[in-house]
Amino acid sequence: MAYFPLFVDLKDKNVLIVGGGRVACRKVLKIIPFESKITVVAPDICDEMSEILSSNKFIIYKKKRVECEDIKEAFIVISATNDSSVNCEVANICKRYGILVNSVDDIENCSFIFPALIKKSDFVVGLSTSGKAPDVTAHLRSLIEKALPSDVETITNNIGLLRQKLKLIVGEQKIRAKIIHSLLQYYEDSDFKLSYGELESLMNNLVEDISVKG
């Protein structure tokens, strides 16, 4: 069964990581850039997790076994222990309370799965084989990352700002979409080397052309 890709706002949301080993560390590192409230619950943690906690004071660590009350407060839960019975128990509690849960390497106890991620500021790509072959997604992530323009963050910011300006001067969405498409084509043809000012001038010319033809 294929999983539906859904981008979720995690800013200030409670994310619970169950487990303190290296797998849990990898999940914490993936979550940190998305500005959520992270809590790690585990009786013991590895040296790598200790380093992460030391350098990220906003992460809460509870040195204990996970309990139902820990889970009920979470927006999403990631169970990353090496104890299948604990992972299964966590998943069952999450399902009871309608909380999204990822049980690492246990697709049967997952209501969501982690994609292979590419994150460049607000530009995010997620890749998945719906749990069938994570090595494939990791390999393809590497290929895609190499193919992306080196300044994709600037490209995203420039077009995002111009899109907001365009909304103020062009009322019809279909026309705005056509202008943005043309603008992106010019941008690509220049190997994405145009400045913001040059892009804005091009956009204004495109708006004027459409108004004259209109």
Biggest β-sheet strands, sense, barrel:
5 strands, parallel
Radius of gyration using CA atoms only:
22 Å
Q: How many beta-strand runs? A: 7
| Percent helix range | 40-55%
Structural class: alpha/beta
For the largest beta sheet, what order do the strands appear in spatially?
A: 3-2-1-4-5
Low-confidence stretches: none
Cα shape: elongated
The chain-level mean pLDDT equals: 92
Give the topology string: H per helix, E per strand: EHEHEHEHEEEHHHH
Strand content: 5-15%
What gap, in angstroms, lies between the N and C termini?
Answer: 47 Å
The number of helical elements comes to 8
Structural features, described:
The chain is of the alpha/beta class and 214 residues long. Helices cover 49% and strands 14% of the residues. The strands form two sheets. It has a five-stranded parallel sheet, sandwiched between helices. A two-stranded antiparallel sheet has the order 6-7. α2 links the parallel β2 and β3. The model has no long low-confidence stretch (mean pLDDT 92).
Briefly characterize the structure.
With 214 residues, this protein is α/β, with parallel strands linked by helices. It has helices at residues 22-31, 47-55, 68-72, 84-97, 134-147, 152-169, 173-189, 196-213; strands at residues 14-18, 37-41, 60-62, 76-79, 100-103, 116-120, 123-127.
